[in-house]
Design goal:
Helix 3 crosses helix 17. A hairpin with a 4-residue loop joins strand 2 and strand 3. The protein is built from 18 helices and 11 strands. With 401 residues, the protein is mainly alpha-helical. Strands 1-3-2 form a 3-stranded antiparallel beta sheet. The longest helix has 24 residues. It comes from Tanacetum coccineum.
Length: 401
């Protein structure tokens, strides 16, 4: 019976954008989404990259060790938390271009350190982040500007500091050094602090959302066949080839595109009439906010659980995950790696970011090492073979396929 129910849900078209979806459980709704082969293939390696970054952070958190390292036994104890299904040792050996296992005779136990290539990439990422503080400040100010009170909890920002490309010491290097823009406040609960926006960046009195820039570009094209009035409230949509859209669904998307809404940087009191049209406008405002949130991230992707921490502060009175599922033309939700990860669909093409930025370019180098895995290495040790350059050429060809 359950199998038939799932099949029936999966067979149905995506939920209407202008009506409430049918009553289904959360897991059923996630299971009913249309899979995108390109994003799923990308997530096969990206989910391991997230584990590698977590281990890398643990290693670099021990600078007093010479070299910076962490015991394999410690990582084994964290295997469940890090989702290392076969244990830390097996996972580390899968990526010899990133990790080296060595035996510390003085402590009588094996340790793990980063390879020179991984250390170099980590250094390049740090340089890329610290070299453009104005851009980092701009992202943080934009994030605070979307809040109803221009205030956000510090712990929520800590959860997405990497996604936003903030320095790991952003409290000192960004917030404390710009007291005319940011103010740290004590919250009503213990050990909790808030960041409040008290000033503006000179020359940035009004922010323009990423979708508004897209509309301007589209309207200025010589071959633009869309009515410019219809573009006023439109978002870019794109669907995977396997997703067959019925005429009725396309018509409802077109109708939804025309619905007016309050933008992510516009003043919003939170009060809205509870009519059907009012609820649709609230939903479209929520879509605009999460669209802009993803646009602010370095890789145009974030874990759904992390963005949920901002929901109350942004005035979103909707389930964020359902919001992504309700709009498959703009967002793609992946469940690989025992986490729900959302991508801004328009920002990607063939598994790569369309508009590159320095931090993403460096992080892509680490992902390339993950994709290479053990290919081109001798089975008996971790030394690179003479064919590594050929393997990297194969990798470049794979990315451009």
């Amino acid at each position: 019976m359950a199998t038939k129910l799932i099949k029936r849900i999966t067979f149905n078209q995506p939920r209407s954008l202008l009506s409430f979806r049918q009553k289904t459980t959360s897991s059923q709704y996630v299971a009913s989404r249309i899979r995108d082969a390109t994003f799923e293939k990308f997530m096969d390696k990206y989910k391991d990259l997230l584990k590698i970054v977590a281990i890398q952070d643990l290693i670099l958190a021990n600078p007093n060790n010479n070299p910076p390292s962490v015991s394999v036994d410690f990582l084994n104890r964290l295997s469940q938390k890090l989702h290392l299904n076969r244990g830390a040792t097996a996972f580390l050996r899968k990526y010899p271009r990133i990790f080296e296992i060595f035996y510390d005779a003085s402590l009588s136990q094996p340790f793990c350190k980063l390879t020179p290539a991984a250390i170099q990439i980590s250094h390049e990422e740090s340089v890329a982040i610290h070299s453009d503080h104005p851009l980092v400040i701009d992202r943080l100010v934009r994030l605070l500007s979307m809040s109803l009170s221009k205030t956000l909890p510090l712990r929520a920002i800590f959860k997405v500091w990497r996604e936003l490309g903030l320095p790991d010491d952003f409290e000192d290097s960004i917030i404390s050094k710009n007291p005319d823009i940011f103010q740290v406040l004590d919250a009503h609960e213990p050990n909790t602090h808030l960041i409040k926006l008290i000033g503006k960046i000179p020359g940035h009195e009004h922010f323009t959302a990423a979708v508004e820039n897209w509309r301007v570009v589209e309207c200025c094209k010589d071959d633009c066949s869309v009515d410019r009035m219809e573009m006023r409230f439109s978002f870019k949509h794109g669907y995977p080839p396997c997703m067959k859209l019925k005429k009725n669904f396309r018509a409802k998307v077109k109708e939804w595109q025309k619905v007016p809404y309050i933008g992510p940087y516009e003043e919003f009191t939170g009060a809205k009439k509870k009519s059907k049209s009012g609820l649709i406008e609230l939903e479209k405002r929520a879509v605009a906010i999460v669209h802009e949130f993803l646009s602010l991230t370095v890789e145009k992707t974030v874990e759904v659980e992390k963005i949920s921490h901002f929901r109350k502060w942004f005035g979103i009175d909707l389930n964020v995950r359902d919001l992504f599922l309700d709009h498959p033309g703009m967002f793609y939700l992946s469940t690989k790696g025992k986490r729900h990860t959302v991508f801004l669909r328009e920002a990607y093409e063939r598994g790569c970011l369309v508009d590159l930025n320095p931090v993403y370019v460096v992080r892509r180098k680490l992902l390339n090492l993950v994709i290479l895995g053990r290919r081109g290495l001798h089975s008996g040790d971790y030394k690179l073979s003479s064919s590594e350059s050929e393997e990297e050429d194969d990798l470049q060809e794979m990315e451009t396929d």
